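ok new one. same drill as before - structure tokens go in, u give me an amino acid for every spot. 278 of them this time. try not to just spam alanines like last time pls lmao
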């Protein structure tokens, strides 16, 4: 019975290099969670959003396409949705920054700080980035229960990913402030604002889902190189002070504002693929 056979784990790639890295470039080896392949990236601060560089191109292409569609539908400028995105992206950066700092004068900060601290140091600490070992061990040692095939339960996911709560409260507030200003100050039409809000919801869903995926071992996205690099950068965010690499998909603001780090050791290693071609 083939259906009863367990699926083999995904074959993890060897050291991940990138064809865009020049042969003479400084190379940084990223810290990675236990069991992950080594990742070498170019140590070039001029590359904006170096993490997941290839996937970012698709993201911006999708944003531009959606912006043109909204412009055609509502009569707004073709770049209006792009402006909404960048303002919301900045709001997300501020929200994530304040989540790691106790600031009494910021609304929702106390609850957000506590929830974020729980996420970083209790659920997914650096030495247990996937947060599954203890639960799996308990399940396997219990004869009365079968092992849950999911890395974390749906209840765990929803309990710590609640949208309308003190954790996301500030981000939701900033989003609505942006939409109100767009209407009252810049006189955006209601249809444009609805389209912008719809775009925010899609981005929130994708970002929330991707962040959850980073903490799932043997996730199907591991077949993509960009995913390994993004997950390594998020793993770095969980190390030390957790005050670097605030982005989930886009690290451009981290580059501009000085919070981006590889937190790796420079090596003289060059591209394996390039060496093979020589």
């Amino acid at each position: 019975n083939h259906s009863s056979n367990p699926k083999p784990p995904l074959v993890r790639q060897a050291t991940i290099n990138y064809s865009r890295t020049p042969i003479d470039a400084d190379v940084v080896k990223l810290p990675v969670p236990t069991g992950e392949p080594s990742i070498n990236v170019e140590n070039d601060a001029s590359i904006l959003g170096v993490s997941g560089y290839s996937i970012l191109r698709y993201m911006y292409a999708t944003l531009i396409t959606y912006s043109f569609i909204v412009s055609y539908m509502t009569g707004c400028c073709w770049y209006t949705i792009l402006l909404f995105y960048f303002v919301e992206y900045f709001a997300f950066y501020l929200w994530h920054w304040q989540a790691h700092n106790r600031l009494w004068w910021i609304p929702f900060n106390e609850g957000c700080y506590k929830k974020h601290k729980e996420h970083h140091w209790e659920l997914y600490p650096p030495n247990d980035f996937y947060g599954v070992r203890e639960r799996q061990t308990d399940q396997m040692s219990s004869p009365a229960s079968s092992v849950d095939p999911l890395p974390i339960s749906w209840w765990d996911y929803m309990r710590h990913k609640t949208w309308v709560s003190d954790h996301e409260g500030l981000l939701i507030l900033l989003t609505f402030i942006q939409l109100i200003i767009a209407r009252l100050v810049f006189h955006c039409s209601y249809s444009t604002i609805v389209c912008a809000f719809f775009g925010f919801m899609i981005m929130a869903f994708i970002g929330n889902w991707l962040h959850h995926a980073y903490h799932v071992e043997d996730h199907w996205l591991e077949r993509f190189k960009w995913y390994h690099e993004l997950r390594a950068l998020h793993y770095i965010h969980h190390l030390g002070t957790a005050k670097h690499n605030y982005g989930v998909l886009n690290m451009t603001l981290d580059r501009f504002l000085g919070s981006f780090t590889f937190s790796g050791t420079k090596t003289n290693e060059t591209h394996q693929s390039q060496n093979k071609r020589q």
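The mean pLDDT is 77. and btw The two ends are 48 Å apart (CA to CA).
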